[in-house]
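Hi W., the magnesium ion complex you wanted:
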Amino acid sequence: REGLWQAQTPQGFRLQALLAAYAAWPQGETATDDAAILERAGGAISLVPGDPMLMKITHPEDFAMAVRLASSGAEIRIGQGLDVHPFALGETVHLCGVAIAHTARLVGHSDADAGLHAVVDAILGAIGAGDIGEHFPPSDPRWKDAPSRIFVEEALRLLGERGGRLVNIDVTLVCEAPKIAPHRAAMREALAEMLHISVDRVSVKATTTERLGFTGRGEGLLAQAVASVEIPA
Ligand code: MG
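Structure:
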């Protein structure tokens, strides 16, 4: 069997040579493949090493096998993020990418969206890529009043750079006010759109601390997030 090879598609040919070989093929005879037709016409076939990962997908079970192959070299990682911003008198609170009318605003260098900041830190945490303050120092005037969405985009870029993808995200917002429930659906949708994952992979939860501590006294809001990512092992 030393002269036998398992061939993969696609096989490459010079078009004119292949067309001429087809034209020269004896009518009525059955060919096994293009390479046989070219060889019969006097053409030379050269072999290049292939990669089993580039298997041809024809039948549904091929696809199942490809999915298994693709995920066999991946692992799931978890990251968590936590962020706090104080409240001050204002009109709008930015949370998880949604602007909420309120009697206070969150104070911060950027738009102070603690929900998104926690998400960013969770993603960075999952890939061991530092924290949001390292990538976007509060001392840098570029991030003054910046929409936090750009921090999310950078975290996703770093994840993509490592060949990773976000699997799901779970956010918990801790405050007495504003009430989160009426905005939960909008937050999940905003996060899903921003993170390029489906809404069922995004969770936004809310709780109070029963009027205890700084969140209980309404001095600030705390956000926590957990992210899981799939990344090549
Ligand atoms: Mg923050």
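The mean pLDDT is 93.

W.
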